[in-house]
Amino acid sequence: MTLRILATGGTFDKHYDEIAGKLDFGTSHLPDVIKRARITIPVAFEQVALLDSLDMKDADRQRVLASCSAATESGIVIIHGTDTMRETAEVLGAANLAKTIILTGAMIPYEIANSDALFNFGFACGVAQTLPHGVYVAMNAHVFAWHNVQKNRSAGVFETR
Amino acid sequence: MTLRILATGGTFDKHYDEIAGKLDFGTSHLPDVIKRARITIPVAFEQVALLDSLDMKDADRQRVLASCSAATESGIVIIHGTDTMRETAEVLGAANLAKTIILTGAMIPYEIANSDALFNFGFACGVAQTLPHGVYVAMNAHVFAWHNVQKNRSAGVFETR
Amino acid sequence: MTLRILATGGTFDKHYDEIAGKLDFGTSHLPDVIKRARITIPVAFEQVALLDSLDMKDADRQRVLASCSAATESGIVIIHGTDTMRETAEVLGAANLAKTIILTGAMIPYEIANSDALFNFGFACGVAQTLPHGVYVAMNAHVFAWHNVQKNRSAGVFETR
Amino acid sequence: MTLRILATGGTFDKHYDEIAGKLDFGTSHLPDVIKRARITIPVAFEQVALLDSLDMKDADRQRVLASCSAATESGIVIIHGTDTMRETAEVLGAANLAKTIILTGAMIPYEIANSDALFNFGFACGVAQTLPHGVYVAMNAHVFAWHNVQKNRSAGVFETR
User: Fold this and answer.
1) Burial class (CB in 10 A: 0-12, 13-18, 19+), D126
2) Searching chain A, which residue's CA lies closest to the CA of residue B131?
3) Bridge-partner residues for D150, per DSSP?
4) Mutual orientation of helices A117-130 and B117-130 as an angle, nearest 10°?
5) What's the pTM?
6) What residue ranges in C52-159 does DSSP mark as E strands?
7) Complex ipTM, two decimals?
8) How far apart are the CA of B111 and the nearest CA of chain D, in angstroms?
9) Is the pLDDT assigned to residue B1 strictly greater than 90?
10) Do A122 and B127 touch (CB under 8 A)?
């Protein structure tokens, strides 16, 4: 198996800007996260965007789709903001690529104590190698088909529609 | 899907004893790790042992097997020391249970900076839900069949035999 | 020596609210921080407020002053937001109490990777025991008299006026 | 004020060696710790040794003394193992240098969760600037004169003799 990791931003990758005093995007944490995971299979990393998913536009989703189409790896993990993860999943799902594409993210940024980011990334790297071709949302040990998932914003969890 | 998590000890769960000045076992980190992962599927936790895997005896492996046999969940993740992970996998593999059993662990203890423990745990929780029934070693994004894995101690990685 | 620690909020004590998706205040980290520091002298903790220092009003500063006046300890450490640390220092300085009062805080919240919070807290606990009576701002290994300090917001550091 | 930081090893600076599976010394964490503290006064760093303090010999203590003698800074912080911190303090104390020399360390290594290392380092950087010339042990918010301190090994704390 080989894996491609796509960074698009989202809570997972937010960084505390000490001058501005707020969470924003700096450089992606993913290269460090991949090193930390000590991944022993071939893995490629690509930064498509670093956006809050509420700021993601159609053109951004098309760039994500283009990266998935161009990838030579059969398993793809996309780090994405949770708020519009489903919308991107729908764009990718409709394209019907012969690949296993997993969207994941985090409820707490990677650099903040008690973050679920590394767990979700590991989980996504697992199911990206084992699920049949298709597009999935994988968060907090739960796999959802792209056409049957929604974020419950008040509870802060994903659920079936 | 439902998951059962079995703690047996190993590097993953080591704890720094500040009086003795060395790494040892205290209470398992797994309950905290499970909470941190915000797992949204049913999950059961069971502490079978807290041992360095070099200290694990046949009787300990039989207890792990007994817990796997008794489990009502179809997916089982076992946190285990890396040094004899393969030996325990062989005991479980030979039993041929109708379950998906994943052994995982860590190269760096969970409580130490830059640990791979949370990644490996997430990875194991993913493949425990998606692989066919059988026994597997899953470390650092790589899945191995139980009868075809060994630890390369000088490189600190798992590889096929 | 004995110490009193006063929490008033500020960057040091911010907490990531995973439902709202932003940094806010939950319960103070200070009780955990004090435990972690393994302080072996008598220490009292008091939560006066949990505010962004930009939201601190005259009445809040008067409550901080009242706590300082009422304290039986001769050394007081106040955890405070950086943006109006000087204004609170001025209120306390003018009161001319026979105590050593140290205002400190953090450029990065305690719960975020690479935070200076624990260092600044340790630094403040040191100079609170050793400086003559008076009011001081102590940040990033630098002690300032209360009447001669300002925050350089573009550089994110404190400096003399 | 200016500060000199001397690394000599000790629990503070221990590093988990994932191949050997134990705590040892790699490169010192101190350069990273100093950066993290965002120190805004002039600071010099010097690595004298990286030793478990039980392995420290007379010659090593003489090298620490030589570094203290040669230092142009008036405040010196020495990161040292706790087990023989008092012995080194005695060597330095007898030399009667016209400098403020603070020995500190940690009960839990810097890279392990819940470490007191950063707190102790901040504390030491504070009292190194404010105490009269002399040699002190400063641990867990408590300052001890060099001739009146001992480690209580069963309790894991320092106390007066």
Assistant:
1) buried
2) A130
3) D159
4) 40
5) 0.97
6) 75-79, 100-104, 134-139, 142-145, 150-152, 157-159
7) 0.98
8) 5
9) no
10) no
